[in-house]
Structures are given as structure tokens and as C-alpha cells.
Design goal:
This protein is mostly helical.
């Protein structure tokens, strides 16, 4: 990770605040931080936590990841990966299972190209998918290879050639 560059961050925050036409006091109130503390961040005197940066980003309506990169908490490639994941997870046109599968495909391509990926790189699994990953095509369980005949209408198995019932195996 890059070292903190709070001077650059402060200048960037001041520029974003002015673009949003907010006073220092208004931004501090919206972000839930003190006015003097925000002033010190803008002047490069304080190193804000990721949580404070997230609150400020929300108040400015900008990407928290952008502030993390500016602060040296996150590198540019990690930011791009997180933004890609966020777009996939926010897409209302696909369901949670599809999102999970799409993220797994994305991870496999990144891994193939030599990049770290997946939840260990800081991404959360798709909401509602739990911790169990969806099996990839070559990991799916083989279909039931039971050579026994299908159950009769009453649920019992038909006897094979020697008259013995083979229903003893589950």
C-alpha cells in the first residue's frame, strides 16, 4: 500500500467541497465530523480514518474509494476492482445468484491475468448468497450414477433380475 499523502487529500477535499458549493461547516455537519477536524484534514495536518473518509465521501456524493486512493489507503487497481464489483452488485436487472456467478467469472479472469481477486482482496460476497460459492462447471456434482431402476409409483424400487431389492443403498 502507498503511504499516506494527506496534503494531496486535503487539497482534493477542499476542491470537491468548493465544487459542491459547501462551506467547511456545512460539510462537517453533513459528514458528522467537527469543523476544526475537517479543517485540519483539508490543510494536511490530520490523517483521517477510512470511516471518516467514507462519511465525507457520502456527504460530498463522491466515491469513498477515490478518497481512499487519494489518502494512500487503497491503490488505483484495488479501487477499480471495487468499483467493478459495486456496479455488478448494484445491478437490479440480475438476481443474486447471477451476481455471484458473474463475480466468480470476473475473479477467474483476474487470477488468470495475474491479479489478486475475490473476498480476500476486500470485496464482499453478493448479498444473500452466504459464504458458499456457486460451483463452477467442472466442480458440479456428477449426476446420480445409481444403476438401480427408477422407483415405482408407490416409491419402491423394482426388483432386478435375481429378485433381490436393491433399495438398501440410499
Amino acid at each position: 500500500m502507498a503511504s499516506l499523502n494527506v496534503g494531496n487529500l486535503g487539497e482534493y477535499l477542499r476542491e470537491q467541497r468548493r465544487t459542491a458549493q459547501l462551506s467547511l461547516r456545512q460539510l462537517a455537519d453533513a459528514a458528522g465530523v467537527s469543523n476544526p477536524y475537517l479543517s485540519q484534514i483539508e490543510r494536511g495536518l490530520r490523517k483521517p480514518s477510512a470511516e471518516v473518509l467514507q462519511q465525507v465521501a457520502k456527504a460530498l456524493r463522491i466515491s469513498a474509494e477515490t478518497l481512499y486512493v487519494r489518502a494512500g489507503i487503497l491503490d488505483e487497481r484495488e479501487r477499480e476492482e471495487l468499483e467493478t464489483r459495486a456496479v455488478i452488485l448494484a445491478d437490479p436487472s440480475i438476481n443474486e445468484r447471477q451476481k455471484s456467478v458473474l463475480l466468480q467469472i470476473y475473479d477467474s479472469f483476474r487470477k488468470e491475468n495475474g491479479y489478486e481477486s475475490g473476498p480476500e482482496a476486500g470485496a464482499d460476497p453478493a448479498p444473500g448468497t452466504g459464504d458458499a460459492p456457486v460451483a463452477e462447471a467442472d466442480e458440479r456434482p456428477a449426476p446420480d450414477t445409481d444403476d438401480r431402476p427408477a422407483p415405482d409409483a408407490d416409491g419402491s424400487r423394482a426388483a432386478d433380475g435375481d429378485g433381490a431389492d436393491t433399495a438398501s443403498t440410499p
